[in-house]
C-alpha cells in the first residue's frame, strides 16, 4: 500500500473540497490528485537507477507534490533545507546519492550546476516539463511491495550528518495511530506551523491528506500569521513545537470558542506552559508526544493525563513496546533509570550505507524510567550526559528547572571539558535580565554538583530547521565564548 492511494478516492468523493491551502493558492482534491499523478508519471518516465529525487524548496504545495509524487511512483524523496549553507546542501546531496535535484528559482543562484555531478532543474523548469506531459495514470511500482519513500538527515550528538530511510508501511502504521490515539480524521482542518523539513510537520501534512482533511501551510512561522490563521479559518488541529506554542501563548492566539487540538512534539515544553494552555484555554486539548526520526511515535501525554503525570512523556502507543534496561541488558524495576529500548512497527528502516538492518529492539540512547502505571519519563540523552567528577548529570534536568522560571524564555545546558572535573555543566540562557535571581533559584532546587559552573547569555538560540535548539551548534558557540574570555 502507498501513502498516496487514498487520493483517488478523495478526488472522486470530495472533488471540490480543499486539500491544501498555502500562501499562494488553494488546491481541491481533484486538482491535488491530478498534480500528484503528473509528478509520479514524470518520475516514472525518468530513467534513473537509484530513483532518488532531492529538492530544495520552501513550504508550499510544490514541496508536498514532489514528496507525494515520489511516494506514488516508488521513488525516494530527499528534502533539503533552504537554511543550510551551500556547502551543507552539497554535502547532504552527495550523501544521499540522489539522481536529480529540483531547486526553487530564488535559490538557484546559491546552487551552481558545476558544484555537483547531478542534473539540476529549477522549480519553474520542472513545472513546465510537467505541463508538457500527455496525462496517463501513474503505474504502481511492482518491483518492491514497500519501497523506501523518504530520506531525511539527523546529526545525532556528533554533528556529522547521517541519512535515515523510511518505508511506506511505517507511516501507514503511524496514520492508524494518529486516528486511534488522537482522533484526527477526514473532517479536520489542520494548520502546519513549521517547516516541512521537520518530520513532525511533514508527517502532519501528509497524514491529513491521507485522511482526506484540509491542510493549511505557512511559508514561514510568525506568531501574527499563525494567530490570524487560527482566528479566520476553521482550524481544528494545529501541529506545533514548544517554542512556537510559547510565542502563541504570549499573544493569546488560542482564544476562541471552537474546540482545538494541539499536536506538539519536543521534550522542552515546560510544565508551566502546558499548565497555562489548559487553564486559560479550556476549549484546547493537547497531545504532547515523544518520538525521534528513527523511532517515530513512542509515547504520548494528553492534556487530561498531564494533570496526574505532569512531568511524564506519556504512555506508549498501543502497538509499541518499551523497556528500560540496565547496562547488562536486564530490565529495570519501576522508577529505576536506564536506557530506553523500543519495539515498534513504525520504526525507520536504518541508516543509508549501513549494511546491518535495525534490530527488533531499538534505542537512540535516551535515558529514563517507567513508573508503576506504565508512564514513561525522560532523564536525557546518554551521549549528552555530563560526567562531573565521576557524577552523572543530565542537562535536561537542569534545563527543566531553568525553564520553569518566569525570567527564562529558553535555556540549554551543555557539558564542556575541564582539566580537573573532566566535564562541567554550562548554562546558556536566551535574553535573560535577572541572571543572579535565576542562579539562586537553581542552587535552591538542585544538588550542588548539578548547578552550572559557567553561565552564558545569548540574544537568540541557534535552531534546527524544525525550530528546536541546535545542541551541537550551541555547544560549539559556548566553547568559543569561553575561550575568548580566558
TrEMBL record:
One term of GO molecular function: ligase activity
Ranges for domain AMP-dependent synthetase/ligase: 10-352
Domain AMP-binding enzyme C-terminal: 397-468
Cited Pfam families: AMP-binding, AMP-binding_C
Keywords: Ligase
Similarity field: Belongs to the ATP-dependent AMP-binding enzyme family.
Protein name as annotated: Acyl-CoA synthetase
